[in-house]
Backbone:
C-alpha cells in the first residue's frame, strides 16, 4: 500500500499527509480557493480502495485539488467516506450529476454537495423524554461528538417534547457520517427517523456582537403578550425595553443599547435556568432562515395527504381552535394522517374557512 501511494505521489505531484483519522492528498502550490460549493461528500467507497484509483476516477469530471479519505486508526482500510475538493464549483456540480449512483468496483457510490449544515433532524422521540435523556441515548448508540441537542416543548403540555429533536455536530462531515451510519437508528426499542435539518445560516461573530435583540422560546402558549411583557419588566427592573414581540411559544425583546441587552440576557438566563424557557441572542433578520411556503402546492392533485394536512395547518395555525392539531403528531402513518386531515377539515368548515 505505502509503495503504491508513494509512486502515485511521485507521478502526480500530490502531497500526501497522514493524519490519525484520514489520508490527505493535495496538489502542491495550487492557488488557495474558496471551498464554498467546491466540495462533494462521497460514501460507498470500497474499504480497500486506494487514492491511486480513486483520484483518477473523480478527476474525470474536473481537477481534484484535494482528496480526503477517512480511514481507521491504522490508516490501512478506509471507512467508505471521502471529501473531494475540486478546482471550481462547476466541477463539483458535475461530479454530483454524473458520478452519483455510479458503480465503482461493483460498489454504488453516493455523492452530495458539502454544505455548511451540521445539524440533523431526529424524529420519533418519545414525548416524555428530556434533552439529557435523548443526549445520553444517542451516546449509548455510538453517536459521539455531539455539540448540542435542541428540543422544543409541546404546545399542549410544556413538560412534553414535540416528538423530535435537532442534533448539532462540530462540522458537516461528522453530521454526514452519522446520517449514513445510523440511518436505521433505534432508541428505546423504536426506530427513529434521521435526516438533514433545514440549514442554519452562518453569522459571523462581528455581526452577532452588534445584535441588540434577544430570543426567548418555550414560553406558555396561552400567556398573553401583556402578561409576558409584565413578567420581563419585573425581572429587568430599570432596563428599558424598546419593543416586545410574542407569538405562540416564543418571543423577541428589542433593546436600545447592546450593553442593556447583554445585562438582560444574563438576568433572564439566571431567572429561567431551572425551567424549560431558553434565552439567547436573536439571529439578525437578514440571516434568519426563510420559511418555505407550501400553500401554492395545496391544491395540486399530486400533493400527498401529508402535504395537504401541513398546508392547512400552516395556513390556519394562528387559530386558537387548532391548538390540539399540532403538526408534530404527523408521523407518516396513514391512520394518523387520515384522522388529522379529517379533524382539520372539520375545524376549517366550522370556522367557515373551507
Residues:
Amino acid at each position: 500500500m505505502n509503495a503504491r501511494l508513494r509512486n502515485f505521489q511521485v507521478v502526480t505531484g500530490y502531497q500526501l499527509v497522514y493524519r490519525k483519522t484520514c489520508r490527505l492528498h493535495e496538489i502542491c502550490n495550487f492557488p488557495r480557493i474558496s471551498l464554498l460549493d467546491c466540495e462533494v461528500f462521497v460514501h460507498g467507497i470500497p474499504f480497500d480502495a486506494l487514492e491511486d484509483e480513486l483520484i483518477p476516477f473523480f478527476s474525470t469530471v474536473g481537477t481534484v485539488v484535494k482528496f480526503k479519505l477517512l480511514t481507521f486508526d491504522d490508516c490501512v482500510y478506509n471507512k467508505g467516506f471521502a471529501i473531494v475538493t475540486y478546482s471550481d464549483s462547476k466541477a463539483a456540480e458535475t461530479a454530483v450529476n454524473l458520478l452519483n449512483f455510479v458503480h465503482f468496483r461493483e460498489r454504488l457510490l453516493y455523492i452530495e454537495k458539502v454544505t455548511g449544515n451540521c445539524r440533523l433532524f431526529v424524529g420519533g422521540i418519545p414525548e416524555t423524554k428530556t434533552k439529557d435523556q435523548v443526549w445520553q441515548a444517542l451516546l449509548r448508540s455510538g453517536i459521539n461528538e455531539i455539540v448540542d441537542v435542541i428540543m422544543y416543548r409541546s404546545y399542549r403540555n410544556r413538560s412534553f417534547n414535540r416528538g423530535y429533536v435537532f442534533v448539532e455536530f462540530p462540522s458537516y462531515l461528522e453530521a454526514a457520517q452519522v446520517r449514513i451510519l445510523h440511518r436505521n437508528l433505534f432508541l428505546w426499542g423504536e426506530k427513529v427517523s434521521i435526516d438533514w435539518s433545514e440549514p442554519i445560516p452562518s453569522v459571523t461573530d462581528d455581526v452577532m456582537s452588534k445584535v441588540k435583540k434577544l430570543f426567548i422560546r418555550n414560553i406558555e402558549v396561552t400567556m398573553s403578550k401583556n402578561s409576558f411583557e409584565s413578567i420581563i419588566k419585573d425581572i429587568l427592573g430599570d432596563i428599558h425595553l424598546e419593543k416586545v414581540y410574542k407569538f405562540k411559544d416564543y418571543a423577541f425583546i428589542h433593546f436600545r443599547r447592546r450593553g442593556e441587552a447583554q445585562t438582560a440576557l444574563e438576568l433572564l438566563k439566571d431567572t429561567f435556568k431551572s425551567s424549560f424557557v431558553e434565552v439567547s441572542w436573536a439571529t439578525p433578520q437578514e440571516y434568519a432562515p426563510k420559511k418555505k411556503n407550501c400553500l401554492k402546492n395545496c391544491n395540486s392533485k399530486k400533493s400527498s395527504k401529508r402535504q395537504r394536512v401541513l398546508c392547512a395547518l400552516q395556513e390556519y395555525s394562528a387559530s386558537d381552535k387548532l391548538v390540539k392539531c399540532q403538526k408534530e403528531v404527523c408521523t407518516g402513518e396513514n391512520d394518523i394522517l387520515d384522522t388529522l386531515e379529517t379533524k382539520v377539515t372539520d375545524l376549517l368548515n366550522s370556522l367557515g374557512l373551507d
